[in-house]
Structures are given as C-alpha cells and as structure tokens.
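Protein: Potassium transporter TrkA
Species: Oceanobacillus caeni
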Amino acid sequence: MSLEMIAVLVLIIGMLVCLFLEVAQPGMIIFSVLVVLLITGILTPEEAFSGLSNEGMLTVALLFIVAGAVQKSGVIDRLMQYWLKNSRTQTDAMLRFFVPIAMFSAFINNTPIAVTFTPIIKNWCEEHGFSPSKFLIPLSYVTILGGTITLMGTSTNLVVHGMLLDYGLEGFSLFTLTVIGIPITLVGFLYLFTIGKKLLPDHKGFRQQVKEDVKSYIAEMEVEDFFPHVNQSVMKAGLRNLDGLYLIEIIRRNERVSPVRNSTIIQAGDRLIFAGEIATIAELQKINGLKLRTGTELELDDLKNGKTSLIEAVVSHQSVLLSKSIKQSQFRSRYDAGVIAIHRNNERIHGKVGDVILKPGDSLLLLAGMDFVEKYQQANDFYVVSQLDPPKTLNQDAWRDWFSITLFIGMIIVVSIGWLSMVKAMALAVVILFITKIIHAEDAKNFIQFDVLLVIASSFGIGVAMTKSGLAEWIASGLLVVGASSGIIVVLIMLYTLTNIFTEFLTNSAAAILMLPIGLEIAQALELDPMGIAVLIAISASASFITPIGYQTNLIVYGPGGYKFSDYVKVGTPLSILVMITAVTVIYHVWF
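Structure follows.
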C-alpha cells in the first residue's frame, strides 16, 4: 500500500467510527474528511467539490422541492382517509394502506411519505382499536421497498446514477431498477402479511404509552411562593398519591433530591420532576402555586380557547438539536414552542426537561401555537408526526393542491417517454411551482434537506479519493481473492452484504458512495456488466431493515410506534435476508 492509500484508508475508518458513534451530524463528519483530503493535496479543489455540480445531487435537491409541494397539498392525505374509511380488519387495512404507499414511494421520496402517513396510520389505529406498532414498521419497510422501483424513488438511486455519469457510464433510466424493485417489493409484502405480522410487537401508541408506561415520560412543575403547601411535606401537599403520576425528583438550586420521600419538605422555587400522564399534569396546573415549565409563555389553558395545540414530534437524525439540551438549543426562541414531555424508548430519562440531551428518535410532546405545523412540518430538525385535535379548516385554493400532484404526474410521464431527463423535468416542475405561486422561496428552503445534500455532495469527493489513491482497487482485489474462486454469485453476495452492513449503521448515501468504486473495480477485473453491479449496490444501500438508525423512515416511526431497537432486528433480519436472496438472484440472471 502506498502512503496515500494508507492516509485515505485511515480517514475513511475514522469517518465510519464517527458516523457510528454519532459524534456530530453525518454531513459535518463527511465534509470534514473531505476538507482534510483537500488540504493534504490528495484531492484537487475540482475533485473535492465535484459533487456540488453532480446531476444526481441536483436532482435530489429538486425532487425534495417537488415532493414537498405534493405533500403540502394534502391531496394524498385526503385520498387515503377516504380510501380507508371502510376498513375494519387489520389485514384489509394493511392492504389498503401499503399497496398505494408502495406506489407513491416509487415516485416520491420516501421520507416525506413516511412523515405524511405516520399520523394518518396512528390515528386510524387508535380509532379502530389496533396497535400502531403493528403498522408503523411495515410503513417504513414498504416505503423503502417501493423506493427501489424507480430511479426517483429514493436519493440512493439518484446518487448512484450521478456517480455512474461521473465515471463516464450511461447511468440509470427511470425504470432500470424496476426489474429488481417489483420482485423484492412483492417478496416484502408476502413476508409482512404472514411471518412479519406475527413478529411485530403489540406496543401502544404515544398517547397510550403515556398512560401505561409512565416512567418513560417526564415533565416539570415549579413551586411558586404562594403555593399553599410551601414548607410542608410531600404527603401533606397531596403530591404523593396522584392518579397516573409519580414525583421522581426535586431540583432545589444545585441540589437534587431523589428518591423523594413522603417526609420530603416542599420549598418555594423547587422544581418538581414528574413522570406520568400528561392529562394529570394538566390537572396539576390548576393547583394554585404550581406552574408547568414548558420553556414558552404558552399555557395548557390556552388549548381551550384555541390559541395553542399539542404536537407530537420526533427528533431527526440530522437535527441541529442533537447532543444539546432543550435549554442549550434555545428551543423556545427557535420554535416558539415548549417541551412538555419527552419519551425515549427503552430508557429512563432523569432530570429537568430543559437539561435532557436530545438523541435521534426522541419523541417530544410540544405546546405550540396553532401555526406550528404549517411552519415547521418540513423542518429538518424534527419530523412533525401529528397534531392532536387539529383545527378544521376549509381549503379555499383546492385547484392549487390538485395542480401540484397533476404537475408531478405529468413530469413522470415526460421522463418516462424520454422527452426530458430527470433533472430537466424536475427543474421545470420547480419553475412552474414558483410561477404559479404554489410554493415560495421559504417553502423551498424548508422542503430541502440540506444535511442530506451535504452528505451526498461530500461523499462524491470521498469516492474520488478512493479511486484516485488506488484504495478501491486494493479493496476490490482483496474481495476477489476471497470470492472469485467461488463464482460470481458469491462475489455478488459479498458486495451486497458489505454495502448492507454500512447502510444499517451509517447512512444509505454514504454506503452507496463508498461501495460503488469498489464494485466497479470488481466489475472491470471480472469483465462483468458494471450496470448490474451498480444496481446491486443501489438496492443493498436502500434495503435497511435491521436497525432504526440506518434509514430515515425507520427513525421516523421509531418513537411513535413505541419500538425498541430489538424490534427492528427481530422483524427486519428475515426480510433483509429474503430481499438479498431475491435481488442477487434476479440481478445474476438479468445482467450476468
């Protein structure tokens, strides 16, 4: 190995470790490695920043805007609610949910699909007495599978397409992946409707869990000077035997009182940390001298007069809130909303709400203004999962809503018949959306997930460094030594497995960009069709079923479904194996 190869390998290993440990946002980690490669001279400025002008990256950015406009229209929501109104059984509901969702995911980025349908499915489950956990992991898996059917179904496909163009190859057509996407989607449906349905946990939804898993939720009350039970014991203050509520800790200046005993004296200024039902906490606020600490001037009483709303939101894996406390992130001033309670799966949360360090997948119960969902539904910091008791409003511009989805379908047809390339069609769609004032500049900014784009743009440079230094060829040679003598099928399985491991613990785009140079080197050495290898890597980089952290859609449903990490392992491992077997078999017979 040359010194340059060693340097690139060390940097990539360090990058993988940092991504796995989540020491910072993925975009910043990968971009930092790119800067080091630039400073050390391993990459020229043109090579380092080639991803910024790559067609695949630009297409992803434009697709975020178009898909955001479709989601904002609410047409899909209304159609699904109408379609579901006659569903009465779990199997019937799953069919009615997931067949259309798989079709939508083939043409719309799967992240907004998951964000859109999570509250619809949760609300339907609660209304009909079903457990949301029986539906939400399948929702994520179906969007992933549906996203493999066309080029525009997921950013991973577009990234691989862009890299193929950079290598001087033809790239994917809109339906290149369909020959693989449809079979693995059918296999996924068959599994989820049989074995998978039995393996899915029977967890309750967010609101149900608040009542049944009280120790997972915390909220904070402050004792004011005029509290009638100041300098009296917890027992005399009536704070011990509360229905569905437990006083777990008292914070007094710099002192923490835990466990709280019946004889513990309540003092003015104490911050009381409760675990339990939100409804009971709302009742506590009625006690003279106890004030709910939400980090905002909004009060629960405002719910009655329509000034505020309760919002369920999930912290995203690209949020600026990560690794910060509620207080440090200046949540109140940033969003004009207060955090009433926090839920973190399979972990007891201690301390004040404002001091909790947020992690991806944390569920937040927010007290916010009535316009919160409209303002922040497309924000990258968290996914607005649902608004409890949303206001009923009439849409005065219904034509705009239908125009968005009609335009999107029109662009798909234009691309399908070859009149325009994907990037040209999406650029035209965005211009039309601006001209008709269906979206504005602020909307576009909110729709675009800039951290995802930073990952993609930076990862292109990493891929160039692997190829330029010879590292990709060296790794490919090592894989060939192990697998070549065993046949092409073994080589394909090795490539698929390694890519899939990366995507389960890192990000799908990073996995694809790390593995494509290696795959193309193997294709050249064995004189294989590079398109078949590229399809294999695109599919395996998307097929993240075993962990909640590998794919955005898995993370979106993590908190709302009340899942544990082990639920993904149990349900996702058989599906991952079935998809691998199907994909490798089809790719082998079609391309090799």
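Remarks: The longest helix spans residues 565-591.
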